[in-house]
Specification:
This protein is of the alpha/beta class. It has seven helices and nine strands, in the order E-E-H-E-H-E-H-E-E-H-E-H-E-H-E-H. The chain is globular, with a radius of gyration of 17 Å. The termini are far apart. The mean pLDDT is 93.
């Protein structure tokens, strides 16, 4: 059976800077296209899916610090040799819109641990052993709703917080969440005000604070 083609924007090595796996050397696989439209997104180059931006795998796999809209349609077999670290993070874009069972199963069979980063706006299709990080995106310009099935599948919920009303939104979502999921508050844009608020709320609720540590050590 022919392997599924996935639109890969970039593959790169770094440290996971957020959530449970903070500090873990990781290969990031960034998939192209996102319909969610978060205004603060720092990877807007991965939003569009214009076939004029399709390039060869060699060109896309050679990207370093380049952040552009080019991508390569890639099979799982073609992607696996590009994975250098034991831990693999599949991100986007919005990877939840793709069937990732073949990719995650192949990675796990190759002795990798897998992690999916998603907005939770799609029903997720990954190997059951994949660690799922849901950063629920509510009332974004794309008009998509967070799926209860994605919240129930989540191993951790990582919620961006800039003001107290963001915490109310999170609490309204938790009824549909895996009761064993870890809850992280992530300060919006790493601001001092948002960080102080996250620390305060996490202390009261027994949650955790996730700081984007990769920004402070200047890695991707």
């Amino acid at each position: 059976m022919r392997s599924q083609l996935l639109p890969v924007n970039e593959v790169f090595s770094t440290l996971q800077g957020e959530g449970k796996y903070t500090g873990t050397p990781s290969t990031f696989i960034r998939l192209q296209m996102c319909p969610v439209g978060c205004p603060w997104c720092d990877t807007k180059y991965s939003w569009s899916f214009d076939l004029e931006n399709e390039r060869s795998r060699s060109e896309v796999f050679a990207k370093t610090a380049a952040t552009n809209e080019t991508f390569a349609l890639t099979t799982v077999e073609q992607l696996l040799p590009e994975v250098k670290e034991r831990h693999v993070v599949i991100t986007g874009g919005e990877p939840g819109q793709y069937d990732l069972r073949e990719l995650t199963e192949a990675l796990i069979q190759s002795r990798h641990t897998t992690q999916l980063e998603t907005s939770g706006t799609f029903d997720l299709r990954v190997d059951t052993r994949t660690w799922v990080t849901v950063s629920p995106k509510v009332n974004m310009p794309g008009g998509l709703s967070v799926k209860p099935s994605a919240l129930r599948r989540a191993n951790e919920i990582k919620h961006v917080v800039g003001k107290r009303s963001d915490v109310k939104v999170l609490k309204s979502l938790l009824a549909d969440t895996n009761p064993m999921a870890l809850i992280y508050l992530q300060p919006l844009s790493c601001s001092r005000k948002a960080t102080d608020l996250c620390i305060e709320i996490a202390g009261k609720e027994g949650w955790k604070v996730s700081i984007q540590t990769h920004r402070f050590i200047d890695v991707r």
